[in-house]
Specification:
InterPro entries: HTH_AraC. It comes from Dyadobacter linearis. This is HTH araC/xylS-type domain-containing protein. This protein is α+β, with helices and mostly antiparallel strands and about 230 residues long. The chain has helices at about 85-100, 115-130, 135-150, 170-185, 190-195, 200-215, 215-225, and strands at about 1-5, 10-15, 20-30, 30-35, 40, 45-50, 55-60, 65-70, 105-110, 165. The strands form 2 sheets. It has a 6-stranded mixed sheet with strand order 1-8-3-6-9-10, with helices on one face. β4 and β5 (about 40) form a beta hairpin. Residues about 155-170 have low confidence and may be disordered.
Length: about 230
């Protein structure tokens, strides 16, 4: 895995390896990003997931804060025993589940300031980990980068250059049906379990339900359990 931090317009060569996921997240600023021959207008909260592009080029007339994350989605050959590689394989599975392996470029837009600030705090944490190497630093960096993806990607990609809003509020009805189905099969299901299956966080679920229904998600789950 590699992480490139950008605080000004720049061009980064990424190489053309077959088994990689590549992500660009723009925390601050606006301008244009070129992924090989594909050109996008980016703004604060823009998130791109791609595999094939060999280079990222940012052009902007204002200061920017962005970073590029590159994951190897198949671990390099290793002489350690298979059980020692389980954590690596789990990380690979999580990346693949967040963004399917395709040759397309997917563009997202993270709307909520809270999510953008959460990403910012994770970036600071990763900066500290890189600056102060520790015995388990690599695993911590990987987990933090995965948290960034979890925050940034809220819904499934729908193709090249589709601007998607990372917002759960338009999906209340869908989430309600999902919860009802889960409770029918398991009355002990928890908020954390539902959030993981929806690839979001307990905080986002709670905030969304308070905003749209005036009740917390935990209260909604308890009511659903009692009704069923």
């Amino acid at each position: 895995m590699s992480i490139h931090f950008l605080d000004r317009p720049a061009r980064i060569l990424l190489g053309k390896y077959k088994y990689q996921h590549k992500f660009l997240y723009v925390l601050r600023g606006s301008g244009q990003v070129k992924l090989d021959h594909s050109l996008f207008n980016f703004s604060q909260g823009s998130f791109y997931a791609f595999r094939i592009a060999n280079g990222v080029e940012l052009t902007a007339s204002v200061p920017v804060t962005a970073f590029v994350i590159v994951f190897n989605t198949i671990p390099f050959p290793d002489n350690r025993l298979p059980q020692d590689l389980k954590s690596q394989l789990r990380i690979v599975d999580r990346v693949n589940s967040l963004v399917p392996i395709t040759s397309e470029i997917h563009e997202y837009r993270v709307q909520h300031v809270e999510d953008q600030e959460s990403v910012g705090s994770l970036v600071k944490m990763i900066r500290r980990e890189i600056a102060v190497p520790q015995e388990h630093s690599e695993e911590i960096i990987l987990n933090n980068a995965l948290n960034i993806l979890n925050i940034a990607v809220r819904i499934a990609p729908e193709g090249v250059s589709q601007k998607l809003v990372a917002d759960q509020s338009s999906c209340i009805a869908k989430v309600t049906r999902f919860v009802q189905d889960k409770v029918k099969h398991n009355k002990k299901v928890t908020v954390a379990e539902i959030a993981r299956e929806l690839k979001t966080t307990e905080y986002v679920l709670n905030r969304t339900f308070i905003k749209d229904s005036g009740t917390t998600f935990a209260a909604f789950l308890r009511k659903t359990k009692s009704q069923l």
